[in-house]
Amino acid sequence: QVQLVESGGGLVQAGGSLRLSCAASGSIFRINVMGWYRQAPGKQRVLVATITNRGTTASADAMKGRFTISRDNVKNTVYLQMNSLKPDDTAVYYCNAIVERTLGQNYNYWGQGTQVTVSS
Question: By CB neighbour count within 10 A (0-12 exposed, 13-18 middle, 19+ buried), where does 74 fall?
Fold first, then answer.
């Protein structure tokens, strides 16, 4: 089994910054993709950003220029640096990982979510 543990959420004023972290542990051969998604109240979960084990990133247009995703492959940890936060960024942020537990066997895992609240 694999566990994803998120940290770093909280309450921040508009224009402020937060850094989220997500550490993976357990039966891991390789983590191919790590990423962040978010879900605002009454809305569907949507992509924020992803990063491959080679460092290739992708992000939603609404976050480009404000959010930066990075990872530490040694620590099996992904980070999300969020700057210039807006009230619309308020959501539960979920960590996601596509984990290769044994060669060629990929599994999709989610963290428990961390609340980010941006006040105006």
Answer: exposed
Q: Express each pLDDT in 59-113 by its tens digit.
A: 999 888 999 999 999 999 999 999 999 999 999 999 999 999 888 899 999 999 9
SS3 labels along the chain: CEEEEEECCEEEECCCCEEEEEEEEECCCEEEEEEEEEECCCCCCEEEEEEECCCCEEECHHHCCCEEEEEECCCCEEEEEECCCCHHHCEEEEEEEEEEEECCEEEEEECCCEEEEEEC
Residue type, 117: T
